[in-house]
Amino acid sequence: MSIQAAIDTLTAKGIDIDTNPPSVKSKSRDFFWYSPVLKDRLDHVVADFVATPKSEAEVIDILRICHAEDVPVTTRGAGTGNYGQAMPLAGGCILHLGKMTAVKDIAPGRVICEPGILLKDLDAACKADSGQELRMFSSTWATATIGGFIAGGSGGVGSVRWGGLRDVGNILRLRVVTMEAEPRVMEITGDDIHRVAHAYGTNGIITEIEMPLAPAYDWVGIFLSFKDFEEALRYSYDLAACDGLLIKLATIFEAPIAKDYFQRVAPHVAEDDAVVALMVAPHAMPGWETFTAAYSGAKTIYVQGQTDWPRQPGHVFEYGWNHTTLRALKVDPSITYLQIAYGADDPIALIGKVKERLSPEVLQHVEVTRSGGRVTMSGLTLVKFTSEERLDEIIAMHEEMGAINFNPHRYTLEEGGRQTVDDRQLAFKREADPKGLLNPGKMITWDDPDWSYDSMYAWPGLQPKTAAE
Amino acid sequence: MSIQAAIDTLTAKGIDIDTNPPSVKSKSRDFFWYSPVLKDRLDHVVADFVATPKSEAEVIDILRICHAEDVPVTTRGAGTGNYGQAMPLAGGCILHLGKMTAVKDIAPGRVICEPGILLKDLDAACKADSGQELRMFSSTWATATIGGFIAGGSGGVGSVRWGGLRDVGNILRLRVVTMEAEPRVMEITGDDIHRVAHAYGTNGIITEIEMPLAPAYDWVGIFLSFKDFEEALRYSYDLAACDGLLIKLATIFEAPIAKDYFQRVAPHVAEDDAVVALMVAPHAMPGWETFTAAYSGAKTIYVQGQTDWPRQPGHVFEYGWNHTTLRALKVDPSITYLQIAYGADDPIALIGKVKERLSPEVLQHVEVTRSGGRVTMSGLTLVKFTSEERLDEIIAMHEEMGAINFNPHRYTLEEGGRQTVDDRQLAFKREADPKGLLNPGKMITWDDPDWSYDSMYAWPGLQPKTAAE
């Protein structure tokens, strides 16, 4: 590997290269620190330089040159991912896509754009053009990029109506550049999309994205409180099951999450209040009112545009999804989280069982989504962290009760998923990244096909802590 | 009752009154003849005159005057309903709303209009204004009115995504005039909507409607053939369960429905082909192709805009819902139909059981819908009619197998439903039509609260056959 040769050649090509240590260090970090486990493993990781292309042609140059010099390339958008997916485990080059922000075409139901545009800016462009918006986005809408969302996310605000990014129809097309002596540009559609979506940039660099759109509405943010957590779950589940009521978010927080961690909501709830956060389409408000009237325990405490709180809470979606953990972390740095799938069959009973056994060490934060045509529930559960051993115990208890764990305290694709390789992703990496230079260390099966998953995978190529300190 | 006095007073008021016998007779008929049972009972029924108001003020005049003269009032839009809901069982006045067609306001996600506008014209207005359209419509879109759809329909094209008219959020507001000495105008919202929606105009006259809208797309009509009917069902069910694939119609026809009854499709299918009809959003087409590729038995025979059939099939939705029966009837006048709910738990198995027992006397025509957040299936089953007794036997067999029957061979609300009164509708009729003059004979419980439902209800007030012949 010759870092310096790569830097020199790239600079000579006119590509924006950053080697300034504090700036490189800051661009070498994502939100991995959500996890105390990842914080321990990855805090020292740093790239050698940052390359910021302005076009696909420059992406191709960067990949060609890094390939020639055997320089690892880890791609990032805004770095708001919290699985360490943008952490350059082996140093090398950070490929920063933040300047590739073009919106190329907007048509009824679809948009074509570059990967580095912020979700917020993409929504603004679609709304201005034709009253449209993305079907779903992460709670980091204001700061995250569409490319990062696709390469490292699974769904979010909007998944209560549209399902996840993985579901057919929710990504229309990806254009991808390979990491070879002569990088190829490939148009990826159909089932092949799963080769590169949610692959952390391990097997190709996304340079163009075609996404489906939904109509843009002035969604009404709402908070309700419930004394009975189970009623809050039931209410949210049933609301999401109303096919005629258009909502974009239904999130449930066990008490005392809202009281303890949501500063602007706290004055309006009690310690024992479970809270539900919703986004409802304006024209669904009459129906929502009708629906809500049937729940005796539902107390509406905030309706955006109607309720006059001394301090406005801002976007309601910035309380849900990964923002819940973020808000809790700001108040109590010992908080971390889990990602749990409670399924579609009887999620409310399963959540009740987990709560019974683990509250308050573990507090339920539940997102309602759709999957396979049914209403489902997922937990982005808050955990009071004490030790890695205890965290593993808590995860094991979930699995034992039938709640499926997607471990956010691991930096590999497999451990964050179902602990098996996605054969399509592996096969595509063989094709698109034969030297294994793209985001190395993130795909266990590439490095150690026989890994047992008995314990946390520690990639042997990870920068030693001493090297960077 | 003084018909002549009513006619004179109405005419003096300047209201458009039609007493010309052939014209009154034609406006006294709906599509009740879909059912040989209703044809036998109602063919002779005729009103005394037709009143066609141009405004809500004229509706009020008509109701006031008919109330004073004890003249029954049966309301109609375009008369495309097939349950006899617009048949004036006791004669009197036909209130024809076909001139109340104003579109009053269109906003993101909603439209306010008068009841007499055709579904087609309302969609055109919403599309021209802001690229929007109704969430759902009957297959009689080109000829039916929005008021008739709401007063006599339950769902249709679009229900595979949005559920039925009955589901909260799918009707936003109705404005209704009562039948009293001094008619009142009431704004009906929330749960109260069920008082007057699907009430056949028995308890108030709808003069203004507020409906939710969805984005208008240039839906792509598609036909597929399958050799295996069960695979056709499974394909359609699974497609409807794709939350990320926007479709507006998924209809399955057992063989040989398409071959025997769909003239323009017939040249392209075999006698043993089951056929699936779809409407897919243009931006869902790539995902649809991906989805379809996984079904080895699915043969795409027509894609609107791509397939060059010598004779184009027209709107694909005009093969589904109640148009299936209409097409079959045109070829074989002995065909009639049933309305069956197969539910959400295991509809495919239940349909298989019914088919096994009753095909080919009974041919499966299945509509995929959503209900309560789940994919469900309903049958608008074709039946080779032989006798009323045999039809009743066939219905009983369905019920025995667990398939729920909504009998379309009855002219009362209760018999077409679950054979029980809707208490809200009855209570509202007491309030809004104390004399029982609105569409008399259509609500059993109003006339005979103790009716047993052992046999077909025959309203004692029905015009005797001899009277009109």
UniProtKB/TrEMBL annotation, chains A, B:
Residues 42-216 form the FAD-binding PCMH-type domain. Gene3D superfamilies: 3.30.465.10. The keyword Ligase does not apply. Keywords: FAD, Flavoprotein. One of its GO terms (biological process) is lactate catabolic process. It holds the Pfam family FAD_binding_4. Transmembrane segments: none annotated. The keyword Flavoprotein applies. Coiled coil: none annotated. InterPro entries: FAD-bd_PCMH (IPR016166), FAD-bd_PCMH-like_sf (IPR036318), FAD-bd_PCMH_sub2 (IPR016169), FAD-linked_Oxase-like_C (IPR016164), Oxid_FAD_bind_N (IPR006094). GO terms for molecular function: D-lactate dehydrogenase (cytochrome) activity; D-lactate dehydrogenase (NAD+) activity; FAD binding. This is FAD-binding oxidoreductase. It comes from Aliishimia ponticola.
